[in-house]
Design goal:
Pfam families: RuvC
Protein name: Crossover junction endodeoxyribonuclease RuvC
Family: Belongs to the RuvC family.
Oligomer: single chain
Subcellular location: Cytoplasm
CATH superfamily: Ribonuclease H-like superfamily/Ribonuclease H
CATH topology: Nucleotidyltransferase, domain 5
Order of helices and strands: EEEHEHEHHH
Structural class: alpha/beta
CATH architecture: 2-Layer Sandwich
Number of domains: 1
Largest sheet: 5 strands, mixed
Distance between the termini: 19 Å
Keywords: Cytoplasm, DNA damage, DNA recombination, DNA repair, DNA-binding, Endonuclease, Hydrolase, Magnesium, Metal-binding, Nuclease
Helix content: 40-55%
Shape: globular
Length: about 170
């Protein structure tokens, strides 16, 4: 199973693709990882357009069975939520154009799937990503580590038959 994981952000969008192997313990190979960067000085349409184009290119190149995104929770950061929504919209349109279903997972679901408890520190999640992917070091920067964790989380829930598309 090939899964694209996305940590949505308008300035830094984590984008990772993994290939999950076998049926036993969760093991996977890293196929692609990057952080798509945009500048606050650029017009919004260019930032959103670049994110859309890069995500679509990766979806066409790797042909994942699913796109998994991190659900965002913003309590009092309305402007940030608004701008992250631009990035998420670009991702959703790219997935639509590529014909790939989209799934969303909250931070506690990611932590539960990868570490066994919903209150793990980011470092603990990154170490689990490293182990599952067989990497020498935890992935960096954190946006990439989060994107890979989200992809692996989808693989976990898909194996259990509990993944539900947006």
């Amino acid at each position: 199973m090939v899964v694209a994981g996305i940590d949505p952000g308008i300035t830094h969008l984590g984008l990772g693709v993994v290939a999950v192997e076998g049926k036993g313990a969760l093991k996977a190979r890293l196929l692609h990882g990057e952080v798509v960067k945009t500048s606050p000085q650029e017009p919004a349409k260019e930032r959103v357009g670049r994110i859309h184009a890069q995500v679509l290119e990766v979806l066409h190149r790797f042909r994942p069975e699913a796109v998994a995104v991190e659900e965002q929770f913003f309590y009092r950061q309305n402007e940030l939520a608004y701008k992250v929504g631009w990035a998420l919209g670009a991702v959703l349109v790219a997935a639509f154009e590529a014909g790939v279903p989209v799934y969303a997972y909250g931070p506690m679901q990611v932590k539960q799937a990868l570490t066994g408890h919903g209150h793990a520190a980011k470092e603990e999640v990154a170490l689990m990503v490293r182990g599952i992917l067989g990497l020498k070091e935890a992935p960096r920067p954190s946006h990439l580590a989060d994107a890979l964790a989200i992809a692996l989380t989808h693989a976990f829930y898909a194996r259990m038959g509990t993944a539900k598309p947006l």
